[in-house]
Write a structure and sequence with these properties.
The complex is a heterodimer of chains A (about 260) and B (about 270). By secondary structure, chain A is mainly beta. Chain A is about 5% helix and about 45% strand. Chain A has one domain. Chain A contains one helix and 18 strands. In chain A, strands 1, 7, 8, 9, 10, 14, 15, 16, 17 and 18 form a ten-stranded antiparallel β-sheet that branches. In chain A, strands 2-3-4-5-6 form a five-stranded antiparallel β-sheet, covered by helices on one side. A two-stranded antiparallel sheet of chain A has the order 11-12. The longest helix of chain A has 15 residues. Chain B has a six-stranded antiparallel β-sheet with strand order 1-7-8-9-10-11, covered by helices on one side. With about 270 residues, chain B is mostly beta strands. The radius of gyration of chain B is 17 Å and the shape is globular. Helices cover about 5% and strands about 40% of the residues of chain B. Chain B has one domain. The chains are: A mainly beta (about 260), B mainly beta (about 270). Chains A and B meet through strand 13, strand 14 and strand 15 of A and strand 12 and strand 14 of B. Strand 13 of chain A pairs parallel with strand 14 of chain B.
Amino acid sequence: MSVPVFLNSSFYYFERKGVSDVQTIMDDFENQVLHVNVPAWSKPSAGLYKSPVDANGRWYDVLFTRITQQKLEMRLRDATGVTVCTRRINCPTANSWNVHIFTGEHHMHIDVDAVSAVVEVLFAGMLDPTPDAAHNKYVYGNGSRSTADYADSSCDVAHSFMIDNATPGYGFRTTSYGTGNYTYALLSMNGSRIYRPVGLWCRPTGENYTSRFAGRRYNSLLTESTLAWGAKVTIPIDIGLSGLFRVTGVPTAYSAKIVIRIA
Amino acid sequence: MSIPTYLSSTFRYKETLAVVDVQTIINDLYVELVTNGGWTCTVGGSGQTPTTFKSPARADGLFLTIQCTRTSATRIAYVVRDHNGMLVNNQTDTRQDIDVAGSTVHYFTGPFHFCVNTERATPECFYCGLADQTPEPISIPRPTYFASYGPRDTSGTWVVNGYWSYLYIMSMGATSYVGNASRAILRACTDSFLRKTMSGALLCEPLELTDGAGIFMGRAYQAMIVDSSLAFAAEATIPLDDNNTGVFKVVGCIVTSNTKLAFRKA
């Protein structure tokens, strides 16, 4: 056995407390992807960050815009320049925030713990299609709010934006590990947690109605929802090898949460 | 990588053409289970009805029994019990038909699984077994037995909810086996979907069981869920690990969520 491909890409984790301006988040993100990540991302223009190109020529980019001191917008595009989604976070003015930034060559995720409010999130990445060949439906992303700053409930464990056929859109994309749209089975009978890949589905080019399996999110796993936000769990990823994962603030769906690797 | 436990048990496959009397099914099962499969016959025997088969004991001593009764030339009845004697298919019995003119019957058996599939205009399938709970210690807190909800109830009526995913199973904290609900982990999204990858490759997954309330209850041995575009009795060669493949044959349960069920034949 070997480490699965989707758990074998680079990963980095950074956190900062006492943040009160989204510019700090942008600066920390830039430092992480340009100066900490190996392989490094690139910065084609102000606020625009391009992920490393993989062996199949795949990449994506995210454009960050400081709307106000509290509002940060992320536009996500695939390598053909199609905008997959544009999403925002809106942090309260009352407190400073704790910011958690997960990055890697194929994924990025930002959790903003606003202390007095729910965690605001922005995330994006591309998918591991192994053992399938690379294809053009590999970019996913989401965020807590619409461009009107409305927390529209479009962002949770099950839902994300991808390109269906030729049209970007939001949908139920995460592989269900339950009996359909019901509680995911992520506990064994003796109470052990079961961790599952975060597989995503979308409609191939030329297909208007029927989704197919597109791949797995890198360095991410599903876990059961009694784990608190921010909890860290050690998970076996191969025989004799474990990784440390942190529970993200992506809202729970079907009793499942998402963890991302930090060590 | 090695072959998962649920695909490492022994298995047998047999096909008998033009069966016109279900006593032939009981006789075939005797050969498959008792003569060649390590099961024992505790009641009846070849040529007799009812006949009860007892599976080989698992490492912790657990087993299941299956009583097969010829209720008419074209109808067989099954009663499945766990090691405590509790009725798994928790009705009087579950029944299955063949055609008066004769039907081809497929048998998929092993120490922990049992499936009889009859070719008809609408194929009929009955299956049951004891689940693999690896890496949990076996029997902690208890084993998982299951049986299909169909194909026919004790009156011989076709079970409309006889989807392959509808199973009798005893949920956590329950005291009896209950059917008429999906108890299979479907591994899908809610959009209309094909169980295929973007390239069109089949996406074959284990038949995993749940209580429907967040508890994983194990995997059926030598069974796979496959895309519903595969025809009844179609065969798919599926990788078991890096070096080995197995051949799985689609059985005749009602489609659930664009998915069919297949059992291993080679």
